[in-house]
Amino acid sequence: MSKKNKKQQNDTQSKRNLQLAKEVATRNVAEYITGLDYLPNPDTILQKNGGNIKVYREMVDAHLDAVKNKRFASITSRAWTIDGSKGDAKKAQFIEEYLWNIDLRNTISQMLEAIGFGFAVHEIVWNAVQTEIGVLILPTAIKDRKQEWFKFGNDGELLLQKKDSTREQMPDRKFLVTRNRPTVTNPYGNAVYSRCFWPLAFKKGGLKFWMLFVEKYGMPKAIGKVPPTATEKEQQDFLKMLVGLVRDAVAVIPQTGSVELLETRLSGTNPHSEIIAWADKAMSKAWLGETLTTEQTSSGGTQAMATVHNDVRADLALDDAAMVESSINQLIRWIYEINWPNEKEIPWMNIILPEDLQEARLERDVKLTQLGVKFNAQYITDVYGIDEKYFEMTEVQQGAMFAEGPEKKPKVRNAGLELRKQVNAFTEHLADECEKVDFLAPIRELVENAKSLEEVRDKLGGCYGEMPMEKIEDEMEQAFIAADLAGRFTLLRKAGIIDG
C-alpha cells in the first residue's frame, strides 16, 4: 500500500472515531425547543399547580410521615464506611474520619428527600484545611438547598433560578445533585410525592365529610313545634334554644312550644372510613412498595405474604443506598481530583445494610455456587459491603460458597460430617446421663409404701423437694448446648456451607 493510500485510510479511520465519540441523537436535534432556556419539570401534578414544587412541602399527614420516616430509617440507621481496599489505604481512612466529623448522617437524611421530591441539591463549601497529611482543599460544610431554586437545562446541567427570573449555570465541583431514577425526559427525577398527592387530597376530603357524617348520625335531631301564630322573631329565638339543646343538652322551651328528639339510624357501612383506608394504603405502596408492614387488615395475612412484602421494602433500601452512595462517591472523586489528581484508585462509600436485606442475595449466590460458579474475596467486598480487612478467606469458605477450586469441596464435606458426628455423640452422651438419674424414684417409693390413694394425694407435693434438682439442672444445661449445636449444624447445611 502506498503512503498516500495509507494516509487516506488513517484519515478515514480518524473521522469515524470522531463520529463515534460525538453525540448525534440529542434533544436539540430531535425535539422542538420552546423559548424557555431550561427544561420544565414534566411532573403532571406540579404542572397543574403552577410548576412550584412547594406544593409537595405542604403535604402534611401523620400516615404519610410515618411511611416516609420508615423508608428513610432503613438507610439513616445504618453504619457506613469508606472502602479503601484499592489505592492508598491511609488516604481512604483519612477521608472516612473527615466525613464523620462533618455530620454526614444529617446530609444523608437530606439526600433521601430526593425520593419524595425527585431530586435534592447540596452546595459544597470548600476551604484549605491543615491535616495530618498536609494542607488539603476539603469540604468544610455541605449545605442543603431548596429544590425551588433550581432548574435543569437541555443537557441536564443545573441552573440557579435568580430573583430577576434569569438562570445561571452552576460551576463544576460546587453542587451535589441527588436524583431518584432520573431519565432523559425527566432530569428532575421520580417524585414519590406525586403519587401521594391525590390519595392525600381524597383523604382530607373524606375526613371532612366523615366528621359531618359522625355529627349527623351520632347525635339526634331536635325538632321544635311552635303555634301557627308565632312570629318570625319567636321562631328564631326558638331555633336558638334548639341549637343549645343539641350542644349542651339543656334549653328553656316556651310553654306554647314542644320539642321532639328524632334519632337518625344508619344502614350499611360508612364509605368515608373506606376512602381514608384506601388513601393510607395508596401512600404506603408509593413509599414502601407494600402495605403489610404498615396496615393490619381484618383478613390478616400469612407469613409468606409478610416475607414478600418485606423483600419489596428491602429492594427499595438497596436502591436508596445506591442513590446516596453515588452522590457521596461523587464528592470523594472531587476531593481526589483537587488534592491528588494523579491517583488512579479512588475509594468509595459503602452503606452497610443489615444481613436480613442480603438474605435473598445470599440464597441466590448459594444456588449459583451449587451450579459451579466461583466467588472470591473481591465479590464479598463489592456485593456484601464487607471490607477485605475485616475477613480472610479460609479453606472451608473457599470450598463452599466462595470456592477457589473443586478440590476444596471434599474438605467441606469432611468438616460437615465431623460436626454431625460430634453433635450425635454429644446427644447420645446426654441420653445416657439422663437414664442414670431416676427422676421418679421419690414418687415410686411413695406409691409403694402408701396405704391409700388419699395418702398418695396428700404427700405427692412433698416428693418434688426430694428430687435431684442439681443433677437435673446440669443435664438441662447440657441439653441446651446440644440443641444449639444441632441448630448451628442445620443452618450451615441449609446455607450450603457444609454437606452431610
Give an overview in words.
There is one protein chain. This protein is mainly alpha-helical and 500 residues long. Among the domains are: 221-254, no CATH class; 359-500, no CATH class. Helix content is 54%, strand content 12%. It contains 19 helices and ten strands. The strands form four sheets. It has a three-stranded antiparallel β-sheet. It has a three-stranded antiparallel β-sheet with strand order 4-5-6, with no helix packed on it. It has a two-stranded antiparallel sheet with strand order 1-10. The model is unreliable at 302-309 and 396-415 (pLDDT under 50).
Strand order of the largest sheet: 3-2-7
Major beta-sheet overview: 3 strands, antiparallel
N→C terminal distance: 69 Å
How confident is the prediction overall: mean pLDDT? 74
What is the helix content? 40-55%
Radius of gyration (CA) equals 37 Å
User: Helix/strand/pairing class, anyone?
Assistant: mainly alpha
